[in-house]
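Render this sequence as a predicted structure.
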Amino acid sequence: MNFPEGLVTGLFTSNACAEREDVGGPAFAGDKALGFIFHFNGGCRTAGRTYYKPIIPVLAEHGLVLR
C-alpha cells in the first residue's frame, strides 16, 4: 500500500469487517498468531478490505519470538 509517508509492503488482506478502533487488533488462524490489523478500506457498512501486517517480521525486528 502506498501512503503519504511511504510504501508499505508485505501485507496480507481479508474481507473481514474492520473499523478504526480495530486497527492494531490481532489476526489468528486457530491458535496461531498471524499478524495485526494495519489498515482497512470501507469499514463494516461496505464491502471493504482489511490489511494486516505479519507478526513474525515485526517481532524479529525487536529480537522477539512466539512460542
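Summary. The two ends are 30 Å apart (CA to CA). The CA atoms of residues 4 and 43 lie 21 Å apart.
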